[in-house]
From TrEMBL:
This is Iron-uptake system permease protein feuC. The keyword Transmembrane helix applies. It is found in: Cell membrane. GO terms for cellular component: plasma membrane. One of its GO terms (molecular function) is transmembrane transporter activity. Keywords: Cell membrane, Membrane, Transmembrane, Transmembrane helix, Transport. It comes from the Bacteria. GO terms for biological process: siderophore-iron import into cell. The chain crosses the membrane at residues 29-49, 82-100, 112-132, 144-168, 175-195. It is a multi-pass membrane protein.
Amino acid sequence: MTTTTTAPDKTPAPRVVARRPQRLTRGPVVWVAAAAALVLAATVALGAGDYGLSPDRILATLTGHGEPLEELVVYQLRLPRLVLGLAVGAMLGISGAITQTTARNGLASPDLLGVTNGASAGAVAVIVLGGGTGSELTSVLGGLGVTAAALIGGLVSAALVGALLYLTSGGALQVVLVGVGVSAFFSGLTSWLLVEASIDDAERASA
């Protein structure tokens, strides 16, 4: 009598994958939280001060139902400062995003790339060299103004970083390293200008 044996079935059993609950994307949550924080900060900025305003009075004033004194405080004093602060903050955020995107490095910032120290060196150079007399170069630098000189110094620093990166074919890591080196150079230049300047010019430049 012959006994027939059947080989065991080696087909793997289908796996049951447990579905995880879908998580909310962080994008809408971040936008809602940012909007709420912005409204809260604006309310505090419009209401805080020697003449305090409650949120309901702020809303009434903005909708045209406020008292004359409330309208003066909101429209003439506090609202322009609030709008200017929001605009400056937005421009700073955009400039930071552009800097990091252009450098392709999340650590990139004006101080790390040497732009801040370059602007400081330009401003100090005009204050120090513009304080002297008898030099045509000194008179030209003194006529530029501190603001224009700071802008030129920042642009020169950024151009120097870009040129060094182009010559060395540097990547994202080299951006920070070159920026730190350029920043140290302009920091040393600023210190040298302050040391060589007169006491009055050094005090004006350090202020």
